[in-house]
């Protein structure tokens, strides 16, 4: 709580006769010329200044920001609220429940463990597409979802009642980021502090990297690991360096053939190329006013794909119109306008702001695009898609003959379905076409463009190919309402695009199984099957185990590819089919006109839809209300639960931390290459019976059909440890030509191949610490707490890489794992390390006296007796992170703070 006001910034803002306490930015010299996002951070420091963690010097450092300097000043950012989805949120609640017991054991009051900032969770990651292509799909998938996840949902309902300031949006409502912009986001927050109503900018951190979608609404927020989110819920500020801010000027407007998705894929490619990891991106210029709010949200959503911390749009009239449309109160809208103008947070397109770096995009130059086959930044212009596929297919169908004489690897595989349908498959078949994910399913312009394209296709007599698994998973129920009101739903359904659920679905890997006959044909013939989705993530192995190549595309293009049935398709030259008169029909013949899209938006969307869609949003349906929910301040753990178990983080923990020690005799658990994502590290998707996780569940009486996904079992550390580094596409360089969660076990004679988990258990019994070696951009991708938790629980003490992605690095520290980097320009390979060495790391003990060494001496002893020595760069970047590391992790640090305070 703020108890210092060094700058006399505290004042009063009167809005229509109602008074709010605010902290005026103009009290600080230099504030006026800051970018929008840094003004929000400056207000945060003014309001939370306490003379200890947050001082007048911090405020002055931010106000005097040098746009050309490299970040070196640490500040403490206190988010106004925390938002979670259920996969990453369940472990947060499990840990809070465990902390309550640990505080009790250390002699403290259990009920002191409570969110200190409002925390909201939206259950959206659990729905899988088991049923599809028929009118009963939605209901059936919800039914299966509750059967699979009942235990977790009971636990979350307990949390909803046990913790103050914690709310749960039940399943079947929508995707967390869309619910955030349509309902939960305040834009300007109000809260009573010491009997006075205070107004301040809405800021948030979320347990999903796409939290940045809310940046489109002028709300500063980004994704953090579940570990940091828990700390923020418990009142710990987020430690960060004052960032560089990249100004991204927008001009012109989107041309007729292109969509918001094409804009965002273009921006993603540009910013990835430019390099924005760890930076803020801020959009400015005359073109901003012409960008609808939904498009702003689409752009903000993709911030993790271009690597920036946040991708901000300032508040303007477009923001206010959206707040009104989505049913926010007039009082709230008036406050947002008055507060933004008073604080210099209102967008003035005529002002040239100070930025660290500048980029510009003329929106009129954007062309239809897709991205793939494995990264969101690999943009392909649609006109080049067939040619690019023919180049890329060689990486997925190596050595295959051109059996069909089509100028690329090919094979004809005949499939007979149980219902009598017969067809022939080949490499490049589109096995999944899914309109899914937060990125696009909150955007009426692309969602209605897809529906109009579906109508035009049906009118021309076109149909989806029979081998394509088609689905629509809207971001909220509002989408279904406007689909129905526009009269376009029957056309989508005619092409097989029935609503299958309200959630992330395909984008998170919950695509569900393909038809068994198709799956068998793909597996038996090693076909390079493809998926096309309107998502933001298309990493290898993510979408479906049968699918090798994944492409991101706008919702209308998802439908176009369902009609085409193959990635080996040129939309300019190849016909999608014939009309009733036998004339060829091309994509250009059915592409929706932007004018019609706008007309349908205007006539189909109104405020009433949002009010109806969010009425009683926290109450849930009859299934939710019928859950048998335990009561009490502490949770009664069930010994036989395979979903929710008490984790071991605090076992034997003392009131004061023990000294940190140097690492000696460590073995390499994995040696990995570049761009290893948290999808590769963290357990995600489905798993088989012969894996360590499968064996554990079978031993605990769970049938194979009830395994569910790793994500749904995030509340059970036993399953999650076994799934860490178990991705089917991970390549551990300790083994030649082997993919999947395997390593060499040096505790055994001849160091045979072994599952990563089994080897780690043997190392633990032998008392051998572990290290992981990595390349560039280690840990990129979604913010996944289990990538760090699993790493720590496997016994890994240090990760040595060429470079880290921001969130994963801080999460490793949050779990007591040391992040180190090879010296600049060096790598494991350049130093001649092959992973068979034994590692020693000296100088760690220097952290015990409160300092953080810049480098540590690493010695790698080879089997022939020779050694490799190098000075590894310590990536503990702030004093706060050093505190966490000394305590063995962020949760231990917070727990000691609570237990040791009166």
Outline:
The chain has 902 residues and is of the alpha/beta class.
Would you give an account of this structure?
The protein is α/β, with parallel strands linked by helices. Among the domains are: 68 residues, no CATH class; 244 residues, Aconitase, domain 3 (2-Layer Sandwich); 183 residues, Aconitase, domain 4 (Alpha-Beta Barrel), CATH 3.20.19.10. The protein is 32% helix and 18% strand. It contains 30 helices and 34 strands. The strands form eleven sheets. It has a seven-stranded mixed barrel. The chain has a five-stranded parallel beta sheet with strand order 6-5-4-9-10, sandwiched between helices. Strands 14-13-12-15 form a four-stranded parallel beta sheet, with helices on both faces. β27 and β28 form a beta hairpin. α15 packs across α20 and α25 packs across α27. It is globular, with a radius of gyration of 27 Å. The protein starts with 9 loop residues before the first strand and ends with a helix.
List the helices and strands and how they pair.
Elements: E1 10-15, E2 18-23, H1 36-48, H2 56-63, E3 74-77, E4 81-85, H3 86-105, E5 119-122, H4 137-162, E6 166-169, H5 176-184, E7 188-193, E8 196-201, E9 203-206, E10 220-223, H6 226-233, E11 238-241, E12 245-251, H7 260-274, E13 280-284, H8 293-301, H9 303-306, E14 310-312, H10 317-325, H11 330-342, E15 357-362, E16 369-371, E17 379-381, H12 385-392, E18 413-416, E19 422-425, E20 430-435, H13 438-441, H14 444-459, E21 469-472, H15 477-486, H16 489-494, H17 516-525, E22 529-533, E23 547-552, H18 555-564, E24 577-578, E25 584-585, H19 587-590, H20 594-604, H21 607-613, H22 622-625, E26 663-671, H23 678-681, H24 692-699, H25 717-723, E27 742-744, E28 753-755, H26 756-766, E29 770-773, H27 785-793, E30 796-801, H28 806-814, E31 818-821, E32 838-842, E33 855-861, E34 867-874, H29 879-886, H30 890-900
Cofactor: [4Fe-4S] cluster
Pathway: Carbohydrate metabolism; tricarboxylic acid cycle; isocitrate from oxaloacetate: step 2/2
Function: Catalyzes the isomerization of citrate to isocitrate via cis-aconitate.
